[in-house]
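Lecture 7 notes: from sequence to structure.
We start with the chain below.
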Amino acid sequence: MDFTNPLPIRLKEARTRANISQRDLGIRIGLEPGSASGRMNHYEKGRHTPDLQTLKRIAEELDVPLNYFFCESDVMAKLVLFFEQLSEKRKLELLQNLESELKNRRN
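Predicted structure tokens for the same chain:
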């Protein structure tokens, strides 16, 4: 089974969408200015993987949920982004509706 790590793709997508350079993002999350661009480039190319704390800082800086970086499909990535923007009340309503629909399909 071929597995492509979605993290580099999602990281680049989120950074590009936020209109932030690799260097600026690296500096904003606390990397040394001299190595910020190179480290972020390695993350986006998949040569290195950031540790969880670094990835959390990246997610916060890019305003995406942490799990966005692990979505294997574009559809799931979009769902995660949209879902995160909903109020807690609306999230619960949506989950209840989905659970109900799936339960009805099985019956």
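Points to note: The chain is about 70% helix and 0% strand. The chain has a mean pLDDT of 94.
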